[in-house]
Amino acid sequence: MTTTSTLSGGTAGRVAGDPPRAGAWRRHRWSLLLxxxxxxxxxxxxxxxxxxxxxxxxxxxxxxxxxxxxxxxxLADEGVNxxxxxxxxx
Length: 90
Hints:
Elements: H1 22-48, H2 69-77
């Protein structure tokens, strides 16, 4: 024999012990929609940012074959203080 709940709030006709199905979606739909919108905004920001490139030859921030990032790291590991000057005033 099954018992039905006659409580108010849209639970009438539901078998006692059954979890609410549509009610949970109604209660949390704005939270879920906000979460989806936030994740979409983060994805747009991440995907639209381009990589930072240092294309100058012998630049210590340039990891490419013309750059000097590996040399700068080795020198830093050996205790050499490296100061990067990008202009004549520096």
